[in-house]
What we know:
The protein is mainly alpha-helical. 37% of the residues lie in helices and 5% in strands. The chain is built from 14 helices and five strands. Strand 2, helix 10 and strand 3 form a beta-alpha-beta unit. The two termini are 28 Å apart.
Amino acid sequence: MRWPSLVLCCLVSVSLVAFPHPLAATAADTAARANSYDQAWRDGADGWVARAKAILSGGNQVPGLVLWLGDSLTRDPALGAWAQRGAGKTASDTAITNWMHAGLSPQGIDSIDGFALATPYICSARSYTVGDGMGAWDFMGTSGMPALTDPSLARQTLQDCSRYNNGLDLTTILSAIPKAQFAIPLVNLLGTNPADLTNFTQMLNLLIANHIVPIISTYTYRDIPSFNLLVDQYNVALKQLAQTMKLPLMDLNAEMLARVPYQDWGVRYLSDGVHYTNGGGGYTSTSDPYADGGDPATHATGAALTYNGYGLRGWLAVQKMKQIKALVIGGGTPPAAPRNVRIVR
């Protein structure tokens, strides 16, 4: 059984309780903690840093191009709004978002801004890299879009909304768009067996074969307790796969839980019980993430990112890319990883 995002949004009910005051930000809500979940397999000859360097070697990629591949949890323009034009960026934030071409390359099939390739949708149910309800199996051959290696045919197909309104194929995507260095796939889970990552692993291997470093992210809870049990299984498998394949990891679910208790997600992080919020509490998708309880000196987030699920996800990716660029490519020093951090669930 698959769980299409847009179907599930119709099955949930969201609390309408208002929270007039921001949740208290904590000094631990930092980029350093967010970047520490893969620390156990980061360094050394068999770590993800060395693995990423090996993947990139020999490729002819666009520096800083990061693809977002996923389902409707990746569709909202709020995902990249802060990176593209947001307030409160530190000098290192600005340097990395410029390197990622965020807001510097208009949406189109030739864009080198991964946020622009992902959002907004160019068809009613998909963009160049994101489609409603899509799982790894869709990207690997079951969505109806053919797998094309000829760049000209791939470009025509990827822009064809009449025949492929909600169809995407990873081979075709990679043949049609500029060559990326990194990709963040976050795709729907397989409801009958969330720990089955066969198709997802195929996605990762195809990316790697194209000199693209995958960055694995955990999936996130919804307002459906039974679904969240599947998410737990999925996330355990994803984290194990990241360690086994020696790939970088972002634990999005853990970072959301660290800032907002799950019982408050219905008005803080989930707009409809499934998809993320893009602002609230007087904050917008481009608000300063370090204001009102945060600290730009330590890249600790404040109140704005307790109201903006899409924004938090985008901010986390920016911080992860800052670390990856420093360690894998060079040209900067990432924040030190925290020690003895305990996240209360």
